[in-house]
Amino acid sequence: MLKQVIHTPKAPAAIGPYSQAIRTGYTVYLSGQIGLDPASGNLVDGLEAQANQVLDNLEAVARQAGGSLDDMVKMTLLLTDLANFTTVNDILARRLKLPYPARATYQVAALPKGAIVEIEGVLVLETATEKTWPGGRSPFDDGKGQ
Predict the structure, then answer these.
(1) For residue 14, what is the domain's CATH number?
(2) Is residue 146 part of a domain?
(3) E-strand spans in 14-90?
(4) pTM for the complete prediction?
(5) Distance from CA of residue 70 to its chain's centroid?
(6) 141 falls within a domain
(7) Is the alpha carbon torsion for 40, 41, 45, 46 positive or negative?
(8) What pLDDT is recorded for position 128?
(9) For all residues of the chain together, what is the average pLDDT?
(10) Residue 144 belongs to a domain
(11) Residue 22, domain member (yes or no)
């Protein structure tokens, strides 16, 4: 299986032994993002600011992989307080297009760096092109599938 590491300076660097995203075939697995400003490395202040920064970070990684948040098929939302669900849900409704991705939401005891929201996701890209796959070669070109 061919795995491509996705990295962009337009999103925060990983704060542990993981990649911002991994692409295999037409699928991109986005690591969880918290509301870190990629320029300063600091957590932005407040729920709405963090939720929007998380989506900005995910969008930057998705674009580096050759897609966008419109290509997201599965999202996992982690909140430190489910009382914040409605606010984050409203932000997601404004920022995402129909059809919305499948989603699971969990309340967790804590998140890295004191964040109050984290989102991870899975993208499925339509095609592999020079822009989205090194050398423009589709992982399906050899007829063996993924």
Answers:
(1) 3.30.1330.40
(2) no
(3) 21-24, 27-33, 72-79
(4) 0.86
(5) 11
(6) no
(7) positive
(8) 53
(9) 90
(10) no
(11) yes
pLDDT given at position 103:
98
Residue-level pLDDT at 146: 39
C-alpha–C-alpha distance, residues 121 and 138, integer Å = 22
Alpha carbons 123 and 65: distance in angstroms, whole number? 9
Cα angle 57, 113, 61 (rounded to 5 degrees) comes to: 15
> In which element (H, E) is residue 74 found?
strand 72-79
Between helix 47-64 and helix 85-95 the angle, nearest 10°, is 40
pLDDT digits (tens, 9 = 90+) for 26-81: 999 999 999 999 999 999 999 999 999 999 999 999 999 999 999 999 999 999 99
Half-sphere exposure (CA, 13 Å, Cβ side) for 94?
10
Burial of 63 (0-12, 13-18, 19+ CB in 10 A): middle
Indicate the number of domains in the chain. 1
- Do 129 and 66 contact (CB within 8 A), yes or no? yes
Look at residue 120 in the predicted model and tell me its pLDDT.
98
136 pLDDT above the threshold of 70? no
- Structural domain that includes position 115: 4-136
Number of neighbours of residue 46 by Cβ within 10 angstroms: 10
Instruction: Return the structure tokens found at 48.
Output: 């709405």
